[in-house]
Amino acid sequence: MPTHSERKDLLLMDIVGYINTAARRLPAWTVYIVCSTWIGWLFYLALTGGLGVEPINALEREYGELGLKLLVAGLLVTPLRKWTGVNLLKFRRAIGVGAFFVILAHFTVWAVLDVQTGERVWTEIVKRPYVTIGMAAFVLMIPLAVTSNDLSLRKMGAASWRKLHKLSFPVAVLGAVHYLWLVKGFQIEPIIYLAVILSLILARMKWNRARAVA
Amino acid sequence: MAYRWTNTLTPADVTPKAAYLNRRRILAGTVGLGAIGLAGQAAAKDELEANTLEEITSYNNYYEFGTGKQDPARNAHQLVTAPWSIKVDGMVDNPGDYALADLLDGLTVEDRIYRFRCVEAWSMVIPWNGIELADILNKVGVQAGAKYVAFETVVQPENMIGVQRRVLDFPYVEGLRLDEAMHPLTIMATGIYGGPIANQNGAPIRLVVPWKYGFKSIKSIVGITLTDEEPPTSWNKANGREYGFYSNVNPQVDHPRWSQASERRIGGGLFAPRVDTLMFNGYEEEVASLYDGMDLAEFY
After folding, report:
1. Is B167 within 8 Å of A187 when comparing Cβ atoms?
2. Which of A139, A181, B66, B229 could form a disulfide with A130 if both were Cys (CB 3.0 to 4.6 A apart)?
3. In this predicted complex, what is the ipTM?
């Protein structure tokens, strides 16, 4: 008869197996549907008063924070497999591309609805460090988004493709710093994002070192 | 000494109570894009329309109740506002703990329709009901030699989520130079739209200094101190490089992290145009002389 803890392990294995089976059945493009619906839904809310009486800043923040969440989700895929056995690898590229489009929406709302003129957009990017950092993160995402297709992967070769896509680490760090830098007073949310992102990166560095030694 | 200043906005600019409860502002169309910048200050004054009570009470900064704009509306019902007393001390003839009603007894409550400009570059127009601070200060008797007025906000830790999270060094404190405090534009507001002031707007009594950034207009006041030294102020303590003691609205002096040249009026919806910010928030004629000879970039 299995002990209590063995029974718990069996149950966990069941759950992991169930998730992996479900993940195998679900096509990766589901992520695109979810992201675009989410973008559209938030815009609809902003348009109809669902985000309060000042929807421009609210929408900007909703998109920004959603983008950051997707970046964290992308970074979580590998550790999740290592730690729990849940394999969501097939969704990772779509999560990254989804993050790119959400952050594109974030940038567009900021530039078009918030700052409103090209001249002011340029001034803000050059003059305000937190904007510069956010912009840098967005620019770094462009080559990743452009090469997120099988053709690019084949053309570049898996090794250099993977190397290029390591840019997602600095992108996530810059995004979290951008958030931390723009808030007033001592606020906990941006600190949590930054801490989670940094610990995910540190964990990965540790594995890599362990692998190099072994 | 009430009625030392006359509104540039008339009561006709304030929507009647029956209408504001259900009113939705006409979007964008009321303020022509760019027209304000071209036509200048006088035109800007004429085109102002007071924000709705819903807007005024649902978009607030009151960090004791959370840092989100809608947090104060959600959480401020926990604020206990009765009984309320204000401790008046320092260089005054009649110091003491005053019950709010006693402190205001015999003083005149006026309607003041003011522009309100937040340091975060958004703005509203708010029809306050309040008493000139000068009347209150004269009542308690300011002693010769007093140069500044310090204010303190109530702290009710068990009711205030932001205090529990230590977002700032609470209690929130603010201050004015005595001549700023005695200026006819400076009021202690006790109402909005003729009704009692909502908790999230600083019930039961708050400062309103319309030519300064909103954070100077300290809420839910429990302490007033007359002093001869410039008092510490909360945002200056939190980040002195970004928030000065004066914090006059000034489109030419940027916040280190964003421009103060323009602002967004709350209520214009998702496509609200930015409008130019006015020097001293449009009260230049009334208050510029207070700062004669001062470098406003240095004393920001």
Report:
1. yes
2. A181
3. 0.84
